[in-house]
Amino acid sequence: MSDNIYTVSQVNNYIKLVLEDDVLLNGIYIEGEISNLKKHTSGHIYFTIKDEECSINAVMYRQDALSFKDEFENGIKVICFGYISSYTKTGQYQLYVKNVKVSGLGDVFLDFENLKEKLKKEGLFDEVYKMEIPPLPKTIGVITSQTGAAIRDILNVSKRRNPNIKIMLIPALVQGKDAPASIINAINLANEYNNLDIIILARGGGSKEDLWAFNNEDLARAIFYSSIPIVTGIGHEIDFTIADFVADFRAPTPSAAIEVCLPKADDLQEKVYNLFCSINKNINKRINENKLKFQVNINKACFVNFLDKITDYQIFIENKLEKINSNIDLKIKENKLILESNINKIEALSPMNILKNGYALVSKGDNNIKSVKQLKKDDEITLSFCDGDKKAKVIE
Predict the structure, then answer these.
(1) Where are the alpha helices (DSSP H) in the chain?
(2) 201-222 pLDDT, tens digit each
(3) Over 60: is that where the pLDDT of 1 sits?
């Protein structure tokens, strides 16, 4: 056996030294698109830089990240400056970023924003088109991978909350280039079956790339035109896809999606029982109250000689009506005289009546002339008489 036997630590440390001694790798600029971004509570930022074919892991430590002021999100195209080294515990090399400059939006991010804006303008996200989620479903269809964690979580929650509700799995691919077509086919099958109250479209957590199948335009339209309400539970709470915006309801996770759709059996039973008790109690209370009122009122004086009292009130009302009508007629006559007097006063003060006495109204353009100071030689003016207007000119 050779004497040149090294430990894993020795090899990893040697590789680290080799990488850090390389002149090119010790101060390098790398351009690519950010993905798998994770901002740690410590302040460190972990992400991947990728192009069309390859990717490299990167880290930006807290002291460097503090001075970076630009937007730092998935899908942003950046130029990173730093050095290549390896993490000795795992032997994986990565880029240690010292500075970052945004060079533009990544193509994938632009595609997402463009599609989102397009569908929004067409009205696919409008609340008016979203269907109500049935409060008491009998059968729920679940479109997801038959081997994924999402269906296991959904079945576990369903069994715990209400085992009487039927869950129907409609298997589909939920990742990769063939996933959109597979999900669309599953939605069409669910609508053809026409015995489902709700469809849940679910997938467990993953990277932005893993969830990209749910940002497909054809899939968005299939969700929009579904005659059965669709609830999405895709990824984690921070993940949003085009499918979420189009769906009738968006839940943050697959487990939350089934909880939204599935009323808890014990809660329903307790609610029905409490409602029954409340209704029964109110009915008995009303019966007893009205029975007591009837017994008290039947012996009141108002029920003695009841018809005579009605006649007395009828005579009283007729007298009141006659007096009211008389007062109304009097008021109408008084107000008519006042109105005629006011009309005569208004007519006496009318400018047209004043013009009939030989006066004229002088105006220049749209303005009435109130003083000679408003006029100068050669100004054209209008003289308004009671029977018409004449143009004039100021001589001096």
Answers:
(1) 8-21, 62-65, 107-122, 149-161, 179-193, 217-224, 242-246, 254-261, 265-297, 306-348, 351-355
(2) 999 887 777 788 999 999 999 9
(3) no
Q: Which one-letter DSSP state was computed for residue 386?
A: T
- How is the beta sheet containing 249-251 ordered, strand by strand? 166-171, 139-144, 198-203, 230-234, 249-251
**Inter-CA distances, 303 with 155, 288, 296, 299, 309, Å:** 69, 22, 11, 7, 9
Tell me phi and psi for residue 358, to 5 degrees: 105, 5
Nearest Cα to 245, choosing from 105, 137, 112?
A: 112
CA 229, CA 154: separation in Å to the nearest integer? 17
With a CB cutoff of 8 Å and minimum separation 6, the contacts of 142 are: 151, 154, 167, 168, 169, 170, 199, 200, 202, 258
Residue 177 contacts residue 119 (beta carbons within 8 Å): no
Question: Residue 198's pLDDT is what?
Answer: 95
* C-beta of residue 179 within 8 angstroms of C-beta of residue 213: yes
- The average pLDDT across 248-275 equals 81
What 8-state DSSP symbol labels residue 214?
A: G
SS3 270: helix
Q: What is the DSSP letter of 204?
A: -
Q: What is the mean pLDDT of residues 155-176?
A: 90
Tokens of 310: 């009605």
